[in-house]
Amino acid sequence: MTTQQPQLTETQKSAIEEMVINRVNAMNNDAVLCEVIDNKVHNMEEHLKAYFHERFHFHSNKA
57 with 23: CB under 8 angstroms? Predict the structure, then answer.
């Protein structure tokens, strides 16, 4: 049995998209920024984390 995840608002999607882009861009050159973003993600609700990781994977493959 699966539980349906809440729908993300456009504001949430936009904020996560910005975090993803910053995280991808900072992967190799800004450990402090990466750590800050990773800490924010760690504290997110599960459905927001899942969306972050989905978008991160997408952008990581493009980089």
Answer: no
Residue closest to 41 by CA, chosen among 29, 24, 28: 24
Q: How many CB atoms lie within 10 A of CB 41?
A: 17
Model's pTM, two decimal places?
0.59
Rg (CA), the chain: 12
Q: What is the DSSP string of 24-48?
A: HHHTTT-HHHHHHHHHHHHTS-HHH
Does residue 26 register a pLDDT over 60?
yes
Highest mean pLDDT among 3-7, 30-34, 43-47: 43-47
H helix or E strand, kind and range, residue 61? helix 46-62
